[in-house]
Amino acid sequence: MNRAEKAALQLQAVAVLRMLKETRTYEELSEVTGLPAGDLNRYVNGHVLPGTDRASEVVEAVGREALADELLARVEFDDEGYVDNSGVVFDQSFLDLVAPVAAETFEFESPDVVLTAATDGITLGAAMASFFDARLAYAKKSKETAVEEFIESRQRLASGIELTYYLPASAIDAGDTVLVVDDLIRSGETQELLLDIALQGDADVTGVFALIAVGDEGMDRARAITDAPVGALTTFE
């Protein structure tokens, strides 16, 4: 880890701690993190940065649990099991915290391209792309008028509906490394289409990440396609 990467990790840890501090006293934050309240005060107020080992622990362990709890508090399910995650996907500052936590937790390799599906996946994709300094690409269910060449992936769903995603062919170059992300993974059908697009573009998949996994079906489906890490911030049964 070079100096810039260490500094970025330390600042990410401080950002996680500041988020936690919004709803906790320093004593409560100490119980959550296992760190002395005095040290936490200095980190949160910017007087000193945590060491790299401590910062890594905050981002990976404490950060994931804290963000998962925050995610649970913001997500709502209706009686038919549909998910309302607008309180998450519309909050770019929250998603900016998710990116380093996901990278540390699942050890995703830095990709050339972050690939997602329009529309709810775009804000998460933007956060991940910014963190990795990667390009953002998103597939759509319709073709752009002025684009001549597309990568197209099509699948007939269990319901009988045919789902098709299109990505401008120029969005991915052969040999690119691609991280597939989305806000939600349930059946895994969307992720399968995105993975197919990446493979059609002769790209190498570095991982699959979702904010929310509903059950294991979608995660297992993605793991059957790629050997790269597959993970979600939190899972609902």
TrEMBL record:
Which UniProt keywords are present, listed alphabetically?
A: Glycosyltransferase, Transferase
Q: Which GO terms describe its molecular function?
A: glycosyltransferase activity
Q: Per the record, a Pfam family?
A: Pribosyltran
Using the record's annotation, list all stretches that form the Phosphoribosyltransferase domain: 93-201
Q: Which domain of life is it from?
A: Archaea
Q: What is this protein called?
A: Adenine phosphoribosyltransferase
